[in-house]
Amino acid sequence: MTADRRIRVGIDVGGTFTDAVAVDAATLTPVGQVKVPTSHHHENGVAHGIVQALERLLAQVDRTPSDVTFLAHGTTQATNALLEGDVAKVGLIGIGSGPGAVVTRRLAAFGRLELAPGKRLPLAYEHVADPFDADAVRTAVDRVRDQGAQVLVATEPFGVDRPEGEQAVLDVARSSGLPLAAAHEITSLYGLHKRTRTAVVNAAILPRMLATADLVDASITKAGVTAPLMVMRCDGGVMSLDEMRRRPLLTVLSGPAAGVAGALMQERISEGVFLETGGTSTDISVVRRGKVAVRHATILGRTSYLNALDVRTVGVGGGSMVRISGNRVVGVGPRSAHIAGLPYACFASLDELRDARIATVRPMVGDPDDHLVLDAAGGRFAVTMTCAANALGRVPEGDFARCDQEVARAALAPLAAVLGTDVAGAARAVLDAGTAQVRSVVDAMIRDYRLDRETAVLVGGGGGAATVTPHLAADTGLEGRIARHSEVISPIGVALALVREQVERIIPGASQEQILAVRAEAERAVVAQGAAADGVEVEVTVDPQTNTVRAVATGATELRTQDRAHRADGTERLRAAATSLKAAQEQVKVLADTDAYTVYGTEVHRRFRADRQPVRVVDADGVVRLGVSDARVATTTVGGAGEALASLVRDATSYGDGGVRAPAVRLLVGGRIADLSGVLEPDALLALARSELRARAAEEPVVAVVESRA
């Protein structure tokens, strides 16, 4: 039998280097990786580096372009364009008459938005009272073009509900040859000001991103790759190149999203915190109930309607310098050895560290003169978080940050003498100071997202993962581990990411039909971008306070028949469940079992309060995929699910001053966990359940995990 040569390729375009990883399409394990300098100054821009990385990668793993079944790249280009103020001038056509004109004309103030110090958003504003007056629209378009506009945006109050006016302006403006966008096409949420600002920022980066997309597309095609090119989104998924051409803003802030996508897909996190540590900083993000945490991003100092990964950055990384005052460590970072232009002491030789003496420096003008360095026989060196982690033996064999422990201990010895402790004590003092800043953010995110500390794990990624995550795990008591291939977790995330689309609508008193329509729209969108229809999963949330109906659809570009070398047996699964439940194995029982999942539970008896049944869902690999603090579990079939679910939902629905609250329901069907917990109205919940099961055989088993809401 011919070996399966298919690979998925992920390419992460960073500010300095472009990393590429090849992942076996069947086992989803990395089989090769390369690094090339990012080609910012080449005539083909970053496209040249992408193709160069791809060619080297294929040669390394002995594959041809035809073996590539999936190709995606992540880029910081849009983020950098906004940070540096390198954007196109936007021609904004406001629409409205009477009171509406007053509101719309105020949008001209977007021209005062500051992109970078001394650089404001370049904007030309013109107004039309009647969008169906073609002559007036042409005049407005000509005026913004004369002012140097390179892209056009049309916006009108209530354009979400009545898009005809914005569309009429675009129809007339099409002959200008400029890229066009209507505000309602970028987001369908209410709020003229925020909706238009999101569309204008999107437009400002549109020409540059279009040029890059065309170059990358042509280069990849020329290289012989026939797989469709996908691009990393800021919410942890990927989108088609055509979708990126329409909404390039979705690539802003996508850098950290690639790392957490890798942790989610490769490490199978269901509940926890992902820490991606580089040389200078640590990006912290959350996975809750098997999904990345996203929120509306702040861009140019203002909130937007861009749904991006909720990532919080701390200025502590593997290269962070130690700060001292007298005989104590007073801080670590944010300055790194890289900024100071100094080598890490732990990567020197013992001979170079001979006769080392402590000194303090200012890495940059204006910095405090308290940053620790060693002046030794071999020159000046920085003592860093990496030095401390190696001195304690926290960096595993083969890790990117690993060095000779004897050298690391020698690097910490002068500091230990000043602190009046041993080398281990000095190393702990450094790591305590550095991880204290990270811990405060981790604690806040666990609290903000109400993560279950019994199931939450800390997963470290990035080249500096071992300098932060192991010590933080020991300090917090949480389970912690370093992701496999942590130094290339971002390109792995790009290679493994699913096609994703989110549809949001504001629908007061949304009916079942309207909720299902939003769900169907999201499902169609990911299928249109190349996701295999049979594998699409859709999560629906209905927020009764804001009347927002949100559907997030995800799917792979091919149906994954993932072959794994290891399948956990019953003993391993039971052990995983018992560990997560913090219960003895004999107290844990099997509540339901399918080919893909085993559901475990235990009884917790409480005085003066009702007993509860914590539940863990463990997959075939022995990974806890879902943890619920108190739930009822029932097994039925697709054919009998309608009646069984109606009874379960009826019994677990709560009624109170806040209204009716249906239970949080998850359905285990096939290899999927269908999450219906975002819907509070019982009838809508049951309608979504029917939608999830409609294409399945009547005799197929279904397990319902039903969690009552307080």
Quick overview of this protein structure:
The chain contains 20 helices and 38 strands. With 710 residues, the protein is an alpha+beta fold. A 6-stranded mixed sheet has the order 3-2-1-4-11-12. Strands 13, 14, 15, 18, 24 and 25 form a 6-stranded mixed sheet that branches.
Describe what this molecule looks like in 3D.
The protein is α+β, with helices and mostly antiparallel strands and 710 residues long. The chain has 20 helices and 38 strands. The strands form eleven sheets. The chain has a six-stranded mixed beta sheet. Strands 13, 14, 15, 18, 24 and 25 form a six-stranded mixed beta sheet that branches. Strand 24 (457-461), helix 15 and strand 25 (479-482) form a beta-alpha-beta unit. Helix 14 (423-448) packs across helix 15. Mean pLDDT is 88; it is low at 561-565.
Mean pLDDT: 88
Strand order of the largest sheet: 3-2-1-4-11-12
Q: Are there runs of 5+ residues with pLDDT below 50, and where?
A: 561-565
What is the first-to-last residue Cα distance?
A: 56 Å
Overall spatial form: globular
Helix content: 25-40%
Structural class: alpha+beta
Task: Report the total helices.
Answer: 20
- Main sheet makeup: 6 strands, mixed
Q: Could you tell me the strand content as a percent range?
A: 25-35%
SS elements, strand count: 38
**Rg, Å, rounded:** 27 Å
